[in-house]
Amino acid sequence: MSHTLPSADGQDRCFWCHGTPAYVHYHDHEWGFPVGNDQRLFEKLCLEGFQSGLSWLTILNKRENFRAAFAGFDFHKVAQFGEADVERLLQDAGIVRHRGKIEAVINNARRALEMVEAEGSLAAFFWRYQPAAPSTGEAVPAQTAESQALSKELKKRGWKFVGPTTMYALMQAMGLVNDHAPGCITRAKVDEARAAFQQP
Known about the structure:
About 55% of the residues lie in helices and about 5% in strands. By secondary structure, it is mostly helical. A two-stranded antiparallel ribbon has the order 1-2. Strand 1 and strand 2 (about 10-15) form a beta hairpin.
């Protein structure tokens, strides 16, 4: 079975990204490219938590609304949110209105501040979980030993909505692994970006 499909431009891309032009753009320019910026890592962790039980396309289409609602995912600011902010966000039709997930973002912002103090940066912590063996992009698992270990450590530190499947999705998106399928036009670009990336 092929893990790629031809797009409108005739180029082969991962089969999952063909829903909309926004999805193709995300696939071509974001998914799998390595990220060392703490705010972007925090944003993606939060959005992966919101995605739980939903499609990523749903979250991607609401991403700008999420950014507006959560102060651009500046965890220094989100850590100051209180109950009034939770109630405000529960009225915001532009995001996913789920109390548990909203409260998890605020909780995780506070945990992020603790992690920066303890580890120097979020990136320094998360990149420790990069698998030793590179992914072939052939058989993509839902979770791995590394994502299980990451999930376990985050839960121990008080983070929420950080299960091993969610953490593997984060690892894929933030470039800790390159799970673009063989034959996908973006796979080689991600390999190049990962090779040039200075690990935190």
